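Data deposition worksheet. Section B asks for the primary sequence of the deposited chain exactly as it was used as input, without tags or linkers unless they were present during the calculation. Section C holds the resulting structure in token form. Section D is free text for depositor observations; keep each observation to a single sentence. Incomplete worksheets are returned to the depositor.
Section A, Depositor: J.P.
Section B:
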Amino acid sequence: MFYLNLFKSLNLKTQEPPSLYNGLLFKINMNYRTIRLFYPNKNNNFINTTTSTIFITNKKIDIYKTLNLFEKKYFQGLKLKTKKINKKIKLSEIINLHDDTGIRDTPQIKNMINQIKNGKEITSQNKLPNIKLIKTKNNNWVLFDGHHSILAYMYVGRKYLNEIPHLIVYNQNQKHVTNKEIHIFFGIHAKKLDKNNWMKYVINWQAPKEKQLSKRTQKNMQELFKSIFPKILQL
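Section C:
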């Protein structure tokens, strides 16, 4: 019943990628990003999803600006479709961009855990998923928003990405994003990164400016969860 009410409240309608027009888009040199929304289905072999195409007319429109554009102009009115899951993605293998020193609001995680136990999913007020990811050219999944949310879901026993609300930002034709695009997640510290070494670092915005960029200590969400778990138990 929860999922039915969630979908009704979303009032979504589908906008698929412009596959018929890809040739034309290429000729006029217009780029776009694809955003896919996912919400759990009661049957874990299926997922409720929709796809939107966000046209990029300015190279300065980064992933964050694309999401803002999506939320303002595309999100409301999309319609979900139920599709069979081809491959399940383990939450434990997702790459984190914050380490345990950047996850300070453990009471927030505890509150999220209670919400999930009471049958509520973790989304923003307008039902947009908190959990946002991209895929690298090496087929790694990177979490750039929603670390607290995923940790809460892992605590209650969710193991796969299809079991939680999330969205994924792709480049054209649902391809990976580039290393240069990933640098935007490091904000003012992006200039300190080499082209391909971003995976060696994490960003922790709560730290003093000179310590916000630091060497990675947990390589994925499983290691981050193991580090944070004792703090949650103390609450």
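Section D:
The CA atoms of residues 84 and 209 lie 45 Å apart.
Residues 7-29 have pLDDT under 50 and may be disordered.
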